Hints:
This protein has six helices and 19 strands. It is of the alpha+beta class. The strands form two sheets. It has a 15-stranded mixed sheet that branches. A four-stranded antiparallel sheet has the order 16-15-13-18, with no helix packed on it. β1 (7-8) and β2 form a beta hairpin. The chain is globular and about 65 Å long. The mean pLDDT is 97. Bound molecules: zinc ion. The site of zinc ion (ZN) has 5 residues, from loops.
Amino acid sequence: MSGHPIECTVDLSAPGRQVGRLEIPKSTNTGGWAHQFIPIATVANGEGPTALVMGGNHGDEYEGQVAGLRLLRELRPEELHGRVIVIPCLSPEASRGGTRLWPNGVNFNRSFPGRIDGPANEQLAHFLSTVLFPLADYVIDIHSGGNTGRFIPCSHMHVVDDPAQRRAMLEGMQAWGSEYHYLYIDIAGHGLLPVEAERQGKIVVTTELGGGGFVAASTHRLAWEGLQNVLRHAEILDGEAVKRDPPATILDGRDPRNYVFAPASGIFETLVDPTDPVSAGQLVARIHSLEFPEREPEPVYAPLDGVTACVRAPSRCEQGDNVLVFGQPIEPSALL
Ligand SMILES: [Zn+2]
């Protein structure tokens, strides 16, 4: 891609299967003219839509990285109509380090739309925003709770304003086939990858596949089978998309009170697990202090009636950490 500091070694307009890499200029004390490599593959065959599939936006979320690598290895042009561009891991250095953030402390998912002359994370965001998103009909960004959260394994979405885009995103979310789905809002700043893709009118499909510092076999299966089913639903990958029966439960997290922050630092004791129903005012967690052993633990109450969607994973918390996330069941027809 001439003119952009990031090089792409595959021809994204060519048919067939190519595996290569993005190269981001990088200068270190041991490598002055180095490049950071990010694997990318394109598999294309004839007419049809394009899906851009990405894992590892956050380095410690491995479900999407494993599914993305498998897609990169196994996908063949003869089994699809259209094109799949896959980047198994957007943040390889963070993946190696087992961290959510890049080694320089930035959250890649707050780097959008990016800047061509910014630091590496903003250059990569700019490349995605200006080169890859415009090629795509579907933008699939696979997240999980990583080290910090135990989320109900689910696909999720922003409730976007445009009715046609909202319906397409609802159907894409449902095609993942998880038992639950979640409607989320941005409670921790701007600059998210999905928001830029939504602004460009894309059908954005995102997930929160479990988390908590480990990946269960069932979650790896959901990542792989859900991804394939979405590609079938998009009529890119051959084969019939499977519809979940009985239908999934959609949890509405659009009321900001659903995101609960630790009132104090200490040892976090949850009293609820993902999928547990709660009532407004119910005691759902306690935060204990070793500094004041005789003090009653700090109580945390459910803000609303609903269902537990995510519980903080590490047992230590700092004041202000997001410790619980809830949602209220909603019918899909309410989104049309
Ligand atoms: Zn994430």
